[in-house]
Specification:
Elements (H helix, E strand, L loop, with lengths): L5 E2 L5 E3 L8 H12 L3 H13 L7 H7 L5 H13 L1 H4 L8 H32 L9 H12 L1 H35 L1
Antiparallel strand pairs: 1-2
Helix pairs in contact: 1-3, 2-4, 4-6, 7-8
Length: 186
Amino acid sequence: MAAPQQDAPEGKPTRRSRWTDPDPGAVAAKIDAFSALTNRQLGTELASFVAADEADRDKVTAYALRSPQLTQKARRLLVDLVKQPDKYLPAPAGESANARSRRLAQFRARAEHEAQLLFAVWAGVVARRGHLLPEPSPRSRARRRLADEFPERFLELVRDEEAADACRAAQRRSERDAAQSASAGL
């Protein structure tokens, strides 16, 4: 995260942010170039972007891939990238099984992070239209469906959990009070 710009009392800047946005024209050109690619070609570009270290990533490419125009396509391709990374990332010659395993684990972790970023970008696009996206977690969606289908039972379970939390809090409070009174009595 870039450091915020801070000004001295007399108005002279003491520290400037190193973050600069890439040229909007270059980003638009990259978006157009990526839009013209086939899914396979864009998948290869996305795989090389995800596989690169954070410091080595091109900002123009990052802005283009995370743009509202390409977000949905990139999200669909990321699923395939995680499932079949060898399809998009050729293995280096002479790579050992352990090195391959580490490389693919790191790639999958980076791809999942990128998927989270793309979900947030798309959620913002949808939110600007006045809607909210459903949770990406199947457990969250299942919980919501159960609450919708069986609201009385769901509310009963919520009240039970709230009562259990209150009991645990009271127990901790009484233990803490007993410990404090015992230490004060010494």
